[in-house]
Amino acid sequence: MDNFSLKIENLTFEYKTTFKDKWSLNNLNLAIQNGELIGLLGPSGCGKTTLLRLIAGFEQPSKGRILINNHIVATPDFLCPPERRGVGMVFQDYALFPHLNSWRNVCFGLRRGQDKSRAEWLFDLLGLSDLRNRYPHELSGGQKQRLALARALAPGTSLVVLDEPFSNLDVGVRLKLRSELSAVLKTCSASGILVTHDPDEALAICDRVAVMCDGQLHQCTSPNDLVHKPSSSFVARFVLQRNVLPISLSEGIIWTPLGKLKYPTNQRIINANEIIFDDQSLRIEKNTKGRAIVEGCEFQSNHWLLRVKFGIYKLRIYMSLGKSIRPGDRCNIFFDSNKTGILFPGAIKCPLNELIE
């Protein structure tokens, strides 16, 4: 038997409108192992919230099916009600009951007569023991979020869905709570889906990261593979904030807006039309006649991050603290001869050191 707490197979969901059918999710497949924490990333409107609603039981698939702990809970012809799925929800705004104290909030989802020892254990695990009699308005943001997590896990939940749970917290509390989340879930033998708009957050704490766009899953892999082997230029641009430029191929030369590169050695390139590279793959030099204009300059502790406009293209460029280039300055941009880009489609590595002057 599969060791999956959640399995989504060929899932399609359709919002019907007056004018035409609108596909929100299209043939999506995803499997989550027991005890695994998956990060779900994607731009607004990509289908993340719809996917959560389908998993929780608030919507019914148009096609495909959803299994939780190897039991079918949703198909186009069958919908298991939310309260019978064993899915815990943790919301961005906590969704605590203001008229109940902390203890009664956590015990709210327990069945009548159900053993409350797990709730007691969760209070100790999450550092809430001294707050049992406090009401939500008497708690800090971090305490409310811990309480919401305890409530989601108290009934013996095996799957927890967290919808941007840290976005309303200050930086210190957010970093502390997110570092604890994975350990808490594993201690409870629960799996989790963390929906976030923060790629750094997902890459830092999740076992795998799933990237969505336009209702489709572009890639689901480990943080390390996502960083070093993005499956598409969208993943590289949205998650990793990489630079993307169009290219054309002709007679062994890769033409880019910044210059010409030779084909990578021993590589067959047919349909590549974009090259991606990180902010350290470019060199920038101030020049009053340069074609590039610096539009912004962000301090990043040990370097500057420049936002540069080059014709119709916007680029991010790493610059050491010792340089003095500021917004409004004109500059020239060059590929760094020691770096490597990636050509798409195909994910073909392309050294940037073969620039033809």
Structural class: alpha+beta
Provide mean pLDDT, rounded. 89
What portion of residues belong to β-strands?
A: 35-45%
Rg, please?
A: 24 Å
In order across it, which strands form the biggest sheet? 7-8-9-3-10-11
Indicate the low-confidence ranges by residue numbers.
none
CA(first)-CA(last) distance? 60 Å
State the helicity in percent bands: 10-25%
Q: What is the approximate shape?
A: globular
Number of strands: 24
Number of continuous helical runs: 8
Largest sheet entry? 6 strands, mixed
Write a structural description.
The protein has 357 residues and is of the alpha+beta class. The chain has eight helices and 24 strands. The strands form five sheets. A six-stranded mixed sheet has the order 7-8-9-3-10-11, sandwiched between helices. Strands 2-1-4-5-6 form a five-stranded antiparallel sheet, covered by helices on one side. β5 and β6 form a beta hairpin. The longest helix has 17 residues. The model has no long low-confidence stretch (mean pLDDT 89).
Short summary of the structure?
The chain is of the alpha+beta class. 20% of the residues lie in helices and 37% in strands. It is globular and about 75 Å long.
Keywords, separated by commas or semicolons:
alpha+beta; 24 strands; six-stranded mixed sheet; 357 residues; 37% strand
Question: What is the topological layout?
Answer:
Layout: E1 4-16, E2 21-33, E3 37-41, H1 48-56, E4 63-68, E5 71-75, E6 78-79, E7 87-90, H2 102-107, H3 117-125, H4 141-153, E8 159-163, H5 171-187, E9 191-195, H6 199-205, E10 208-213, E11 216-221, H7 223-228, H8 233-238, E12 243-246, E13 248-250, E14 253-256, E15 259-262, E16 274-277, E17 282-286, E18 292-299, E19 304-310, E20 313-319, E21 330-335, E22 340-344, E23 348-351, E24 355-356
Parallel strand pairs: 3-9, 3-10, 7-8, 8-9
Antiparallel strand pairs: 1-2, 1-4, 4-5, 5-6, 10-11, 12-16, 13-14, 14-15, 15-24, 16-22, 17-21, 18-19, 18-21, 19-20, 22-23
